[in-house]
């Protein structure tokens, strides 16, 4: 989209003695450290319902509101947040409230597909999204660190991008989840979405952008 803003998020490494001691204390509790980002997600939960027009676009187009991106290029790993222009100040406030020493810079769009050979691999859950996934509270360590360690072994002449699109859901999503849980508890199959919920957004998009 032409109105997407890319923000590069950076934190100081902290090379001083006091910083190293503080990092050791924080590293002792991985869940507490990651939980700060969980609060950022909580602060962003109202996106999509800020006004009537925004809610209408959210209802019809189901478009992602925010993209988190790890981008590896020239042997360096960067973290970007991409969103629409009207949401940038909300994201800046949400991130800054949890990371006081963060640096947020408006950046150009990362060049993901400028290499001669590219490969795209979408990752989606095979089960219905009603089923739970393992959260960081139930993990022994930070899985993102394992992914970053794997990226570090890639040649500096190659690129890797991991893009995660997120969008807040409405309260009706919670109501549907409760109904689905009740059906699972009774050993019943989950209800299938009605035909217009499956096809209407796609048909409308195809008509508008034909």
Strand content: 15-25%
The helix/strand series, from N terminus to C terminus, equals: EHHHEEHEHEHH
End-to-end CA span: 16 Å
User: What's the shape?
Assistant: globular
- Counting helices, strands and paired strands, the structural category is alpha+beta
Count up the helices.
7
Q: For the report, how would you describe the main beta sheet?
A: 5 strands, antiparallel
Low-confidence stretches: none
Helix fraction bin: 40-55%
Radius of gyration: 20 Å
Strand order of the largest sheet: 4-1-3-2-5
Mean pLDDT: 79
How many distinct beta strands?
5
Describe this structure in words.
The protein is of the alpha+beta class. Helices cover 40% and strands 17% of the residues. It has seven helices and five strands, in the order E-H-H-H-E-E-H-E-H-E-H-H. The protein has helices at residues 17-27, 30-43, 52-61, 88-98, 143-151, 171-185, 195-208; strands at residues 4-10, 66-73, 76-84, 103-107, 160-166. The protein has a five-stranded antiparallel β-sheet, with no helix packed on it. A hairpin with a 2-residue loop joins strand 2 and strand 3. Helix 2 packs antiparallel against helix 4 (88-98). The longest helix is centred in the last third of the chain and has 15 residues, at 171-185. The protein is globular. The relative contact order is 0.17.
Summarize, please.
With 210 residues, the protein is an alpha+beta fold. The chain is 40% helix and 17% strand.
List the helices and strands and how they pair.
Blueprint: E1 4-10, H1 17-27, H2 30-43, H3 52-61, E2 66-73, E3 76-84, H4 88-98, E4 103-107, H5 143-151, E5 160-166, H6 171-185, H7 195-208
Antiparallel strand pairs: 1-3, 1-4, 2-3, 2-5
């Amino acid at each position: 989209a032409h109105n997407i803003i890319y923000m590069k998020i950076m934190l100081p490494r902290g090379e001083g003695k006091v910083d190293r001691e503080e990092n050791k204390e924080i590293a002792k509790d991985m869940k507490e450290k990651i939980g700060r980002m969980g609060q950022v997600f909580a602060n962003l939960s109202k996106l999509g319902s800020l006004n009537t027009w925004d809610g209408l676009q959210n209802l019809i187009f189901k478009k992602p509101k925010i993209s988190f991106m790890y981008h590896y290029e020239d042997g360096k790993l960067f973290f970007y947040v991409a969103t629409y222009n009207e949401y940038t100040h909300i994201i800046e406030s949400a991130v800054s409230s949890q990371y006081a020493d963060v640096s947020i810079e408006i950046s150009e769009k990362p060049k993901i597909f400028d290499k001669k050979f590219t490969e795209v691999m979408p990752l989606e859950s095979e089960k219905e999204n009603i089923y739970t996934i393992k959260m960081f509270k139930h993990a022994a360590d930070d899985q993102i660190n394992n992914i970053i360690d794997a990226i570090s072994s890639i040649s500096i002449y190659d690129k890797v991008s991991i893009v995660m699109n997120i969008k807040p859901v409405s309260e009706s999503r919670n109501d549907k989840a409760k109904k689905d849980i009740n059906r699972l508890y009774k050993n019943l199959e989950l209800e299938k979405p009605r035909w217009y919920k499956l096809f209407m957004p796609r048909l409308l998009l195809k008509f508008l952008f034909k």
